[in-house]
Write a structure and sequence with these properties.
This protein is α/β, with parallel strands linked by helices. It is 34% helix and 27% strand. The chain has one domain (2-229): P-loop containing nucleotide triphosphate hydrolases (Rossmann fold). A 6-stranded mixed beta sheet has the order 6-7-8-3-9-10, with helices on both faces. Strands 2-1-4-5 form a 4-stranded antiparallel beta sheet, covered by helices on one side. Helix 6 links the parallel strand 7 and strand 8.
Length: 230
C-alpha cells in the first residue's frame, strides 16, 4: 500500500501542496484529478524523491520513502511515468525498454519485453526506431511500457492523455486497464476526468494544492464530471 499523509511541498515561497493525504491499496486504482497548477505533479515528485516534502510523509509498505532517491523506489516495486513522457529521443524503442529493466531479474527481461509488445502492439514494428521519431501516443505507450519493465507492484502515471487525440488517449487508457486487471496498482494523475473515471476505483480531487473531495469513483464520479463540465 502507498500511503501519503499530511504532505506539504513548497518551491521557495510557492506552496504547491498543503496537508495532502491519500492511499493507494495493493492492486487498487486511484485517480488524482485537478486543473493545471493544482499540485498533481508535485505529489508525484514527492513520492518519487524529486522534491523533498516540507511536511508529512509518504509510506510504501509501511516504510517512509519520502526523500529517498528514485532508483530505490524502482527497486522496491514502484514505477514512475513522468509528465511529458521523457523517453530518450535518440535511443531506440528497444533500448528505452531495456533501460526500464535495469533493476529487473535478467532471466525475465525477454519475457517482460514480449508482454509489453502484446500490451502495446504498435511498439513492436517500431522497436528499432529512435524514440524521438514516434508519435505522441506511441511515446506515451513506450513510457508506460518502460515503467512496467521493472515489474512494479504500483505504477504512477502523470497525465498520459496530455496532447493526445481522444482515440489515442483511449488506446493508452485501455492498456492501463489491462495493467490494472493483471493486479498492478495504478496511481493515475489526470486533468481529463472522464478518461480517468474509466479506470479509477477511487478518486481524489485537488484544487490549489489541497484535497477538496475524495472517495469511491462510483459515488463521486457523476458529481465530479458535472463539476468539470460546468
Ligand atoms: N519548479 C517549480 N518552481 C516553482 N513553482 C513551481 C515549480 N513546479 C511547480 N510549481 C508551482 O507549484 C504549483 C503546482 O504545480 P504542479 O504540481 O506542477 O501542478 P499540476 O501538475 O497539477 O499542474 C503551481 O502553482 C506551479 O506553478
Ligand atoms: Mg502536472
Amino acid at each position: 500500500m502507498l500511503s501519503v499523509s499530511d504532505l506539504d511541498v513548497s518551491y521557495g515561497r510557492v506552496r504547491a501542496l498543503r496537508g495532502v493525504s491519500l492511499t493507494v491499496p495493493d492492486g487498487g486504482s486511484v485517480a488524482v484529478l485537478g486543473p493545471n497548477g493544482a499540485g498533481k505533479s508535485s505529489l508525484m515528485r514527492a513520492i518519487f524523491g524529486q522534491v523533498r516534502p516540507t511536511g508529512g510523509t509518504v509510506e510504501w509498505d509501511g516504510e517512509v520513502i519520502s526523500g529517498r532517491p528514485a532508483y530505490k523506489c524502482v527497486r522496491s516495486g514502484l514505477a514512475h511515468v513522468p509528465e511529458g513522457r521523457e523517453v530518450i529521443a535518440r535511443l531506440s524503442v528497444h533500448e528505452n525498454l531495456l533501460m526500464g529493466a535495469y533493476v529487473a531479474d535478467r532471466s525475465t527481461v525477454a519475457e517482460q519485453l514480449e508482454q509489453m509488445l502484446e500490451l502495446f502492439p504498435s511498439l513492436r514494428r517500431r522497436l528499432k526506431v529512435a524514440s524521438g521519431r514516434l508519435s505522441g501516443g506511441e511515446q506515451q505507450m513506450l513510457a508506460i511500457a518502460r515503467g512496467l519493465m521493472s515489474r512494479p507492484r504500483l505504477i504512477a502515471i502523470d497525465e498520459p492523455s496530455m496532447g493526445l487525440a481522444p482515440a489515442v488517449a483511449n488506446m493508452v487508457l485501455e492498456g492501463l486497464r489491462k495493467v490494472h486487471a493483471s493486479g498492478t496498482a495504478v496511481l493515475l494523475v489526470e486533468q481529463n476526468a472522464a478518461l480517468a473515471l474509466r479506470l479509477a476505483e477511487d478518486i481524489v480531487v485537488f484544487s490549489h494544492g489541497e484535497v477538496v473531495t475524495s472517495g469511491s469513483a462510483k459515488e463521486l464520479g457523476p458529481e465530479v464530471l458535472d463539476h468539470y463540465a460546468a
